[in-house]
Design brief:
Blueprint (H helix, E strand, L loop, with lengths): L1 E6 L5 H5 L2 H8 L3 E6 L12 E2 L9 E2 L1 H12 L10 E12 L2 H8 L3 E5 L5 E2 L1 H7 L2 E4 L9 H12 L35 E2 L2 E2 L9 H19 L6
Parallel strand pairs: 1-2, 1-6, 4-7, 5-6, 5-8
Antiparallel strand pairs: 3-4, 9-10
The structure holds S-adenosylmethionine.
């Protein structure tokens, strides 16, 4: 999978790219590259944004700047979508990232993620260049870099061989193995800390009963999270 992340802060991806599972992904031939919008802007002083028409606070990322960045990268008119490439704007109001969307994205071969900053994108970027808008949740962050990393992280760990332990991704929260429910609780040594004891059953060595207990805990967590009391 090739993931291109367009950003005003490419250096912020250095930490992300140094993470163990991301390096594993890269060794397996996958790629995450951060590209600076400023590198291809034709405006003087590496300008990328401007004040909003109609007034208001903040600066808006310009459509000509994003077009030039996408043209430079892909060699085509970004209004003509490239087959197989999803071009995703990170926006607070987009489709909220969840397990279904992560599964869907992990089947793609090429992803482009556009990070906004300040007041966000000129709407024509979203309308003419993007196939999707993705939100990390219904709150506002300062920029699209953290949402982009969240997308990359969630998607890369779905790819075969990226996680050291293949089993880790099979039975985890929201997986089919757990019927889409949250994962059950985990415990490790010490078996008793202060007066907090690990559930007896986990020390029993009875794998059948442990499995059944874990299933029940997972279902109960799912039911608790969906209870009407949560609003
Ligand atoms: C300060 S925000 C702009 C918020 C925008 N004016 C609004 O009210 O929706 C700057 C950028 O951060 C990113 N961003 C902020 N919150 C986000 C979220 N919850 N999910 C995805 N991206 C987000 C987007 O790329 C956005 O363009």
């Amino acid at each position: 999978m090739n993931i291109d992340v367009f950003t005003l802060f490419p250096d912020s991806f250095a930490w992300f790219n140094s993470q163990h599972h991301v390096r594993n992904a890269q060794e397996l031939g996958h790629r995450v590259e951060a590209i600076d919008y400023r590198d291809s802007t034709t405006l003087t002083g590496r300008q990328v944004d401007d004040t909003p028409f109609g007034g208001g606070a903040g600066m808006v990322l310009r459509v000509d700047v994003v077009e030039s960045a996408l043209r430079d990268r892909y060699g085509n008119d970004p209004a003509d979508r490239l087959p197989g490439r999803r071009v995703i704007a990170l926006t607070p109001g987009g489709r909220v990232l969840d397990e279904t969307l992560v599964e869907e994205l992990s089947d793609s071969s090429d992803l482009t993620l556009l990070c906004g900053r300040y007041e966000g994108f000129d709407e024509r970027i979203i309308e003419h260049f993007c196939t999707d808008q993705i939100s990390l949740g219904r709150f506002v962050l300062a920029g699209g870099e953290i949402p982009a990393m969240a997308v990359c992280d969630a998607v890369l760990r779905k790819l075969p061989g990226v996680l050291g332990h293949a089993d880790s991704a099979v039975e985890e929260s929201f997986s089919a193995a757990l019927d889409g429910q949250p994962e059950y609780p985990h415990y490790t040594r010490p078996a008793v800390w202060r007066d907090w004891a690990v559930p007896e059953i986990l020390l029993s060595g009875d794998h059948g009963r442990i499995e059944a207990w874990r299933r029940a805990e997972s279902q109960a967590r799912g039911a608790a999270n969906n209870s009407p009391d949560d609003g």
